[in-house]
């Protein structure tokens, strides 16, 4: 196993992946998370600098999902909502699409995200329906899920795999 990892690391340096000295070695930022009742990882987010919203981290979501309460909370005008048709496994639906100016998690913001307004249900103990944090937020980082300590650490995307592995353990 160690030989395979060493070979992969050597190959990554040969093809031009930056060395560890060119990438930030510690996390850019780190945030705590909580578990939803159904076992989803949730982080605290701020939408457009004004609305605190728990968001489920979804590594497969293309769009941010916001509860319909966002219309009032973010003062979204009718003209800012477009309607798109989407095919699902069982039917075709109309979806309300908005552009979210900014989502901030742990002091780091990503701007101009596509969002869908949906009838999302409140979570017990949270008092409001959560949103869904999409891949477009996570894309700029290597994200480490520390399940034991309930933290997400966001690292420089250019950080090589070697920085995450203690090869002496393998």
Question: Short summary of the structure?
Answer:
The protein has helices spanning 2-14, 70-73, 135-138, and strands spanning 29-32, 34-35, 41-47, 51-57, 64-67, 82-87, 92-105, 108-118, 131-133, 141-146, 151-156.
Oligomeric nature of the chains:
single chain
Strands, total number: 11
Shape: globular
N-to-C span: 7 Å
Percentage of residues assigned to helices: 10-25%
Strand content: 35-45%
Average pLDDT: 79
Q: Please state the structural category.
A: mainly beta
Low-confidence stretches: 1-22
What string gives the helices and strands in order? HEEEEEHEEEEHEE
Largest sheet: 8 strands, mixed
Helix count from the secondary structure assignment:
3
Alpha-carbon Rg, integer: 19 Å
Characterization of the model:
The chain is mainly beta. The chain is 12% helix and 41% strand. The chain contains three helices and eleven strands, in the order H-E-E-E-E-E-H-E-E-E-E-H-E-E. It has helices at residues 2-14, 70-73, 135-138, and strands at residues 29-32, 34-35, 41-47, 51-57, 64-67, 82-87, 92-105, 108-118, 131-133, 141-146, 151-156. The strands form two sheets. Strands 2, 3, 4, 5, 6, 7, 8 and 9 form an eight-stranded mixed β-sheet that branches. A three-stranded antiparallel β-sheet has the order 1-11-10, with no helix packed on it. The chain is globular and about 45 Å long. The termini are close together. Residues 1-22 have low confidence and may be disordered.
For this entry, give a set of tags.
170 residues; mainly beta; 3 helices; three-stranded antiparallel β-sheet; 12% helix; eight-stranded mixed β-sheet
